[in-house]
């Protein structure tokens, strides 16, 4: 890579200390990455994230070939991007859309034209904005009724004035380009009922676009008439019976999704026990958790403060959220723990034996050229009957029709299987997948994001040529061939993602994003399979005899 590095330093060695571009504070960069992920993702994705890791290795004294080459690359990169962020010299207000250049400089450990002090103060101003927005937009409101007058998305930041309209009536002001206007009014629930708050608004000629009662108001009704109460990621859903003296509370749009769960799969009284794994529907997908506590004659309160009354007919459970660990294929407790509450009739029990190593999460990649037209990426994520490389003691093929049962799954297109780099999704209509006689094909238009633009550039250059898919196997078969275990994947139970990646597992196929793979790296890419499945594979093979082949 062309560079004038280095031009200073006693020994003229290729080191950061001899660079023409001083280092940015590593401690500030680490805090930004850990504490402000929204800002961290605003710029410098893919190569910037790789640069950050190489910078860390260099700081630890590594003199590997990769680190030395990166230090040279950093010098040329800094020269090209030194002026990034110059717009903030004109007192521009920062937001997540215009700080990409500064964030990228930080990931490369480079101090740009603003200087370190102004780079930090610009991002600190953005942090304050995000904090203010989070405080004002927090949901739900546990102690106040909220009357929204203007859409909060219009503003860069917010300010709150307590008792602006009298005791218990606070004003929320939205601020944009230094100009503020009244965005919302909040009423202390202990001083105003819902009806009194609405009457005050009417008397003072305020017409809210949305009125949200304090959540406790919903529970002043007789809980004996609550048929169903559950919590999803966006809202609390309450389904009431309809006796004459009880006001009906309509369920939000999320309710039909859960009520559509087949009746026989809802947990009945006595069916669940502490420690059971359960799941429920939230935002059109299953969420998993483990039961910690059950109450059939009293209340349980979630971490959010949300409380449900359990009855003998419909007990309530305290549940800790569990997330899928793609490395093990198992569900593990979320860190930090998040505990929610659900009535039995909103969840179903999961048979954990179905999550044994026969259903581990696996990944496979194919080595073929991408096809890119404009911003459209298309190709084959899997090719039938294509023999894999050695996957840690065995080889495999995927049988025709293996994906027949998963074409309606909610599949994501990711970069390197990372959820931080979402490219498209079938549930949103931005990703199309299908199966033909050749294999599993996919197509999507790359989004207008910095990392998607980087991917397109890498593909056009020929640097990124692999495609991979993440899946869980439903049915496979084994035999010995040429003295080596040979696996056929006959049926896929779940298709999780298709991903542009760096290293393939199959040498012959046609897919969207492919390249050659060093064998040492192949072993590393597939170590998840080796760690989680190889004992299972060996045990199955021990039971085979020569007559079976």
Estimate the strand proportion. Answer: 25-35%
In total, the number of domains comes to 4
In whole angstroms, how far apart are the ends?
Answer: 55 Å
Radius of gyration equals 28 Å
Average of the residue pLDDT scores: 75
Parts with pLDDT < 50 across at least 5 consecutive residues: 216-237, 239-265, 353-359, 505-549
Outline:
globular
- The percentage helix is 10-25%
Count of individual beta strands: 25
**What structural category do the secondary elements indicate?**
alpha+beta
Number of separate helices:
11
Biggest β-sheet description = 6 strands, antiparallel
Characterise this structure:
The chain has 4 domains: 16-132, no CATH class; 138-213, no CATH class; 221-353, no CATH class; 357-548, no CATH class. It has 11 helices and 25 strands. It has helices at 26-35, 37-40, 47-59, 65-81, 100-107, 115-137, 194-203, 255-259, 450-461, 519-525, 527-542; strands at residues 144-148, 157-161, 169-176, 179-188, 210-212, 226-231, 236-240, 277-282, 285-295, 298-301, 307-310, 316-325, 330-333, 339-343, 348-349, 361-367, 371-373, 376-383, 395-398, 412-415, 418-425, 431-435, 439-445, 466-481, 484-501. The strands form 6 sheets. Strands 8, 9, 12, 13, 14 and 15 form a 6-stranded antiparallel beta sheet that branches. Strands 16, 19, 20, 21, 24 and 25 form a 6-stranded mixed beta sheet that branches. It has a 5-stranded antiparallel beta sheet with strand order 2-3-4-1-5. A hairpin with a 2-residue loop joins strand 8 (277-282) and strand 9. It starts with 25 loop residues before the first helix and ends in a 7-residue tail after the last helix.
């Amino acid at each position: 890579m062309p560079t004038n590095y280095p031009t200073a330093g006693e020994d003229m060695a290729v080191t950061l200390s001899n660079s023409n571009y001083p280092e940015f504070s590593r401690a500030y960069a680490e805090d930004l990455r850990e504490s402000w992920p929204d800002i961290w993702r605003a710029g410098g994705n893919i190569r910037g994230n790789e640069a950050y890791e190489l910078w860390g290795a260099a700081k630890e004294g590594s003199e590997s070939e990769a680190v030395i080459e990166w230090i040279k690359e950093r010098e040329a990169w800094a020269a090209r991007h030194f002026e990034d962020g110059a717009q903030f010299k004109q007192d521009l207000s920062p937001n997540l859309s215009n700080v990409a250049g500064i964030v990228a400089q930080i990931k490369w450990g480079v101090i740009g034209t603003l200087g370190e002090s102004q780079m930090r103060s610009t991002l600190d101003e953005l942090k304050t904005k995000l904090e203010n927005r989070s405080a004002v937009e927090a949901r739900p409101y546990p102690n106040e009724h909220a009357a929204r007058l203007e859409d909060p998305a219009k503003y860069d930041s917010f300010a709150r004035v307590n008792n602006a309209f009298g005791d218990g009536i606070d004003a929320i002001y939205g601020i944009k380009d230094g100009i503020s206007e009244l965005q919302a009014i909040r009423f202390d629930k202990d001083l105003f009922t819902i009806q009194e708050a609405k009457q005050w608004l009417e008397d003072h000629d305020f017409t809210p676009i949305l009125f949200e009662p304090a959540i406790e108001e919903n529970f002043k009704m007789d809980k004996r008439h609550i048929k169903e109460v559950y919590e999803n990621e966006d809202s609390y859903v309450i389904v009431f019976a309809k006796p004459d003296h009880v006001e009906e509370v309509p369920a939000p749009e999320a309710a039909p999704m859960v009520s559509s769960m087949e009746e026989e799969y809802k947990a009945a009284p006595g069916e669940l026990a502490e420690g059971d794994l359960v799941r429920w529907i939230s935002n059109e997908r299953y969420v998993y958790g483990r039961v910690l506590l059950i109450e059939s004659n009293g209340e349980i309160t979630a971490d959010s403060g949300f409380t449900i009354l359990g009855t003998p007919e419909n007990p309530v459970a305290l549940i800790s959220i569990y997330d899928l660990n793609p490395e093990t294929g198992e569900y593990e407790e979320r860190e930090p723990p998040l505990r929610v509450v659900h009535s039995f009739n909103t969840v179903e029990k999961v048979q954990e034996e179905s999550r044994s190593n026969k259903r581990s999460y696996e990944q496979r990649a194919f080595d073929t050229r991408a096809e890119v037209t404009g911003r459209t990426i298309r190709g084959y994520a899997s090719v039938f009957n294509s023999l894999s490389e050695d996957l840690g003691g065995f080889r495999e093929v995927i049988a025709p029709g293996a994906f027949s049962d998963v074409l309606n799954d909610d599949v994501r297109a990711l970069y390197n299987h990372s959820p931080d780099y979402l490219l498209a999704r079938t549930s949103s209509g931005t990703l199309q997948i299908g199966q033909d006689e050749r294999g599993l094909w996919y197509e999507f238009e790359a989004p207008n994001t910095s990392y998607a633009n980087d991917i397109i550039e890498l593909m056009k250059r020929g640097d990124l040529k692999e495609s991979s898919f993440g899946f869980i196997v439903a049915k496979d078969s084994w035999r010995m061939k040429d003295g080596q275990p040979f696996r056929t994947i006959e049926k896929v139970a779940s298709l999780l993602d298709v991903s542009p990646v760096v290293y393939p597992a199959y040498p012959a196929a046609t897919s969207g994003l492919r390249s050659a793979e060093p064998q040492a790296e192949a072993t590393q890419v597939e170590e998840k399979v080796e760690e989680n499945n190889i004992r299972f594979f060996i045990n199955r093979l021990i039971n085979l005899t020569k007559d079976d082949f």
